[in-house]
């Protein structure tokens, strides 16, 4: 008998929102009773979402064949990724309906042989060797690279596509029809339609509008901590005391509610928010018809290879079918009101070449009517050159930046806290400072996690209590690299990350010197 699948949506969420957080362990029955009540969901008034942006740093090639850079023609090459998140009860509803749709979606995939292999994002695929584990991005990338290697004798093309602003460009009519079809209906039941409307005709409030007004335009203001502390005294963890307090704030004009502002070229409302518990399932559902066509036309009829990870599409095919497949992708996406991101479709040709008397699989990028040698196919965080595989250089750089910033912050706090203390022995302090880092094992297998809860103190004020829990450390970046090397059968990734200890020590020495001078140690 299979163990009952645990619902991932039924969990505590730690973020602040317009309404109080929900303790799932205390209100489990109440939550389940509500989200499973179709009439209640059909009549439910969803709250506005909170909107924020995540800044994603990008690497670009300034010109064909040149190296990556963080700036392009003098401009920073990062993008803002919009993120929306719901109140806790609304998130429970989205999560419950997302899980129901996901189960039906997985059943639909199984009806067509080979379709479950084509879709790799937002679903759990059991690992064939590692018992109790699911496949991850390492496995998915490795499968693509192995497929390319298997076609090396004849040579093959790897066609890579990125769907333009996928989540914010989803056509509501297409999504609604796909949703109803999955339920074997021509229209959506009233409860499903309520959830559909909440995910498409959503409203939101900017998170920054909840902050205090700042007179320093170079620095973002914080939240009103005094007001939040007063709210916490009533055993509420939210931006407002209750829904009445929130609605009064809106009536007084202190906050502005915005409507879904995603529009297509015709000015029609489109798109769904990223960040909702149902968003990932709707993304896969939206592309279900596309995936079926790709399987039939690319894999079955033209003996190609097709994989889709969210909005990242990769196809491996022969020279003979390349042109027809490229036209097929464009036309099929247009049929569901989507497009390939301008400049994001990449074409790589892989073939065996004689390199100093040795036959090697090599990669060539086809761009602007010519080939560029030794340009890697970048996929799911890896760079595939044909004869070697590396972790994507941008990802490695990002990790090093975070590590160095952590060292900088920790060193600054140590010196600042000791500033002005005349009793401190300088040599002894420096030794203790370095000791801060001796317990940082970059290869550790366990991690201490802090769990916060609101409890009343001796004065009746509600404060956060922090409990430490020593648990198994799932992975760190270097263990990830070792696992990738093992799965892909290459030591090039391990070699790539060998300098991490040197970079770490250099950062400690650099910032110890800077802050010892600043704080006169």
From TrEMBL:
Keyword Transferase belongs to the record: yes
Q: Entry's InterPro entries?
A: DNA/RNA_pol_sf, GrpII_Intron_Splice-Mob/Def, RT_dom
Supply the alphabetized keyword list. Nucleotidyltransferase, RNA-directed DNA polymerase, Transferase
Question: Which Pfam family, an example, fits this chain?
Answer: RVT_1
Q: Reverse transcriptase domain: which residues?
A: 1-384
Specify the domain of life of the species encoding this protein: Bacteria
Residue ranges of coiled coil:
none
| Membrane-crossing segments per the record | none
MF terms per GO, please?
RNA-directed DNA polymerase activity
- Would I find DNA repair among this entry's keywords? no
Tell me the protein family, please: Belongs to the bacterial reverse transcriptase family.
Q: What is this protein called?
A: Reverse transcriptase (RNA-dependent DNA polymerase)
Q: Which organism is it from?
A: Mucilaginibacter gossypii
